[in-house]
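Dear colleague,

Thank you for sharing your sequence with our group. We've completed the structure prediction you requested, and as agreed, I am returning the results in plain text so they can be pasted directly into your records. Please verify that the sequence below matches your submission; if there's any discrepancy, let me know and we will rerun it promptly.
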Amino acid sequence: MKIIKKNQLAILVIALMLITAGYLNYDSTYNGKLSMDTSSELNQSINIAALGDAELVNANVTEENEKKEEEKTSNENSLEQAKTSEIQNTNTQMNSTQTSSTDYFVKSKLERNVMYSQMTSRYQEIIANSSQAPEQKAIAQEEINKINDLQNAIMIAENLLTSKGFENNIIFVNGESVNVIIGKEKLEPDEVAQIQNIISRELKAELSNIHISMK
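Please find the predicted structure tokens below.
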């Protein structure tokens, strides 16, 4: 009986040793796995945090770049608008000056033609007046013919000047003196010679009697 008990005790001790060894092995494996899992989760959390920070930085940089681009575009638009406004103002001033100059020539020609028309009317009254002597009527008719011839010559000369590029021009004739006003700030010597040639040919005027001015 004592031998059987010793065998049983030996078996029990061996079983306990196997159980203990199995427990220790399981505990070591579980703790190692837990440690690896914990480390992996920690690394993943760090990576996620780093990724979030990177995305935040990228977002901030992108937003800052967009703001800079918008400011640059806005400044360029403002500069372009300022240039456009300056050009428009310059064009407006130039057009206003040109219009004013053109108005002067149109008005002056109208006043000149009215003057010739009034002179013609007075001579016609002399011709129509029965109390006037025939000699006076003949002189009046001759003056009317001179006015008509002068007006035609002036019209031809002014049209020729316009065709040569002097769009704004006007001619005043006072006896043998001929005054020509050209709508330009400056005339070159060859332009002056061209104007003199037209005036002397069409109005039968001497070069010394031709006076050219600019407006």
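Summary note from our side: The chain has three helices and three strands.

Kind regards,
the structure core
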